[in-house]
Amino acid sequence: MITETFEVELEHEGERLDKYLSMIFDEAASERGLTPQSRSFFQKLIKDRQIAVNGTVQKANYRLKAEDYVTVQIPDAVETPILPENIPLDILYEDNDLLVVNKPKGMVVHPSAGHYSGTLVNAVMYHCKDSLSGINGEIRPGIVHRIDMDTTGSLIICKNDESHICIAGQIKEHSCNRRYRGIVCGVVKEEEGTINAPIGRHPIERKKMAINEKNGKPAVTHYKVLERFERYTYMEFQLETGRTHQIRVHMASIGHPLLGDVLYSSGKSPYKLQGQTLHAMTIGFVHPNTGEYIEVSAPLPEYFEKILRDLR
Q1: Strand, helix or coil at 254?
Q2: Are 205 and 154 found together in one domain?
Q3: Are 159 and 186 in the same domain?
Q4: Could you read off the pLDDT of 217-276 as tens digits, one per residue?
């Protein structure tokens, strides 16, 4: 049984209890190791009297007040076995402590509701056997950071807990060198720039993130133009922080959403795309065992190269 307590902030005053919980668990997932859950999941917990507001059980449609304390008791999950699967991996670098893989478009990084097979975790479990860090639990062995399902590119997998702690520390301290390539809509005028705008959960649309000056977390993206076309711009992005959907949110906020991004733009394009045109090209880090700086780059995927050829 997991028990979590949340203090309701002013921005959520008047929110329905069930809707609030589905949003707040999304926000807390990466910080506290919780699993995002649907609104119907919390409605069932409310019906089962597992949720209380200021110590009193309330209905799903209870309207919250600022400074309310919401206590949630989540029963232990029924284990779904996560099995190794012989899925080919594009390995860019590997040693006894870690590997860097080139994640393809459409592959989910770790199992979650509706995705218990075909994930990167299933693939690395088969490849690494029992040599994976266990800090993130049975459902995310080896996973120290993530990229979106439809983003391709470099991802570090840790083979032991010591490596996991070291790499996680570098990510937290923003010392990992992470450079992305993307194609955005419109012609970006500046040669380079920095977007410094906090990102938090969208106040209405649960699946989206947004610029949130009051309750967002610091987010900094550096960008530079690589090539301009008639209606699009080919760009490089360097992350100083690693918020959910950071590049996608930041670029949409300045009027240049990523080509193909159906969540933060209309998604309309002359190309048949599966999500945003974004690639985690380069990742640089200090090796947890040798202390050597290592930089690994994933080549642009073929679909991305084809779009560039067409635009040229």
Answers
A1: coil
A2: no
A3: no
A4: 899 999 999 999 999 999 999 999 989 999 999 999 999 999 999 999 986 788 889 999
Assign 237 to helix, strand or coil.
strand
CATH number at residue 157: 3.30.2350.10
Catalytic residues, by residue number, are 148
**CA dist., res. 308 & res. 227, Å (int):** 10
Question: What is the model's pLDDT at position 41?
Answer: 82
Q: Phi and psi at residue 107, in whole multiples of 5°?
A: -90, 125
Residue 26: pLDDT band by 50, 70, 90 thresholds? Answer: low
CA-to-CA dists, residue 305 to 45, 101, 154, 186, angstroms: 48, 19, 17, 19
Average pLDDT over every residue of 54-76: 91
Q: Is 118 left (phi over 0), alpha (psi -120 to 50) or beta?
A: left
Mean pLDDT score, 180-192: 97
Tell me how crowded residue 261 is: count the other CB atoms within 10 A of its CB. 27
- In DSSP terms, 265 is beta-bridged to none
Residue 267 belongs to domain spanning: 179-279+306-311
Is pLDDT of 77 > 60? no
Domain check: are 207 and 220 in the same one? yes
Report the pLDDT value the prediction gives residue 194, as an integer from 0 to 100.
98
Is the CB of residue 21 less than 8 Å from the CB of residue 40?
no
Neighbours of 199 (CB within 10 A): 23
Give the per-residue SS3 of 53-76.
ECCEECCCCCECCCCCEEEEEECC
